[in-house]
Design brief:
The protein has a single domain, classed as Peptide Deformylase (Alpha-Beta Complex), CATH 3.90.45. Helix content is 23%, strand content 25%. A hairpin with a 5-residue loop joins strand 6 and strand 7. The N and C termini lie far apart (32 Å). 35% of the residues are buried.
Length: 189
C-alpha cells in the first residue's frame, strides 16, 4: 500500500467535520489500508481520515500486541467515568498534554464488510477511540487540555517513545497562537 502525508496543526482540515461514508467500495478499502500503513510508519496507535486530508468518517486503530482495526462511521454512544491521561497526536507532533478521557466507552462502527461492530472499551483502546472520533468531529486533543499550560514540548527522544510519535515538529508560534485564541477564533496560518 502507500504511506500518506499526515496533516498537521494548524491546517484547517483538522477543524472540519468528516462526512458519513455511504458506500464501502474499493477506494474506501484502499484508503483504510493506506491509513494503517501510514499509522504504523509514524508509530501511532490510531489515525483518522481527515489527518491524511480525507473528510470521510473512517478511523484505523492498532493497540500494541493486537491486529489493526478499521472502523467506518464510528460513534461513541456512551461514556462513563473520568480519568486524566497524557496524550499526544500525530497531527500535533512534538507536544503532549494532560486531558480528561472516559474510563470506558460503548462504541459502534461498520467494518469493511458493512457489518455493525459494537464494543465496550476501556484503558488505552477507549482513549484512542475517543481521540480518533474527536478528529472526525473537528476536535483536537488540545481542546480537552486540563489546563492550556499543560501542553508541553518534548524532546525528539522523548517524543519517539510516546504513543503517537511523528518525524516533524510544530512551530512554537503555532502553539502560542492556539493558546491565545478560543477554539472559534483559531484561523489556519
Amino acid at each position: 500500500m502507500a504511506i500518506l502525508p499526515i496533516i498537521t496543526f494548524p491546517n484547517k482540515i483538522l477543524r472540519q467535520k468528516a462526512r458519513k461514508i455511504k458506500t464501502i467500495d474499493g477506494s474506501i478499502k484502499r484508503l483504510s489500508y493506506d491509513m494503517i500503513d501510514t499509522m504504523n510508519d509514524a508509530g501511532g496507535v490510531g489515525l483518522a481520515a481527515n489527518q491524511v486530508g480525507v473528510l470521510k468518517r473512517l478511523i484505523v486503530v492498532q493497540i500494541p500486541e493486537e491486529e489493526a482495526r478499521i472502523y467506518i462511521n464510528p460513534e461513541i454512544i456512551y461514556r462513563e467515568g473520568s480519568r486524566m491521561v497524557e496524550e499526544g497526536c500525530l497531527s500535533v507532533p512534538g507536544y503532549v498534554g494532560t486531558v480528561e478521557r472516559s474510563i470506558w466507552v460503548k462504541f459502534r462502527a461498520l467494518d469493511l464488510q458493512s457489518k455493525m461492530i459494537r464494543i465496550k472499551a476501556d484503558s488505552l483502546l477507549a482513549q484512542v477511540l475517543e481521540h480518533e472520533v474527536d478528529h472526525l468531529n473537528g476536535i483536537l486533543y488540545m481542546d480537552h487540555l486540563a489546563e492550556h499550560e499543560k501542553l508541553r514540548s518534548i524532546s525528539p527522544e522523548e517524543y519517539n517513545s510516546t504513543i503517537r510519535p511523528d518525524q516533524t515538529t510544530l512551530q512554537t508560534d503555532d502553539v502560542e497562537h492556539f493558546h491565545t485564541h478560543s477554539q472559534s477564533e483559531i484561523k489556519p496560518q
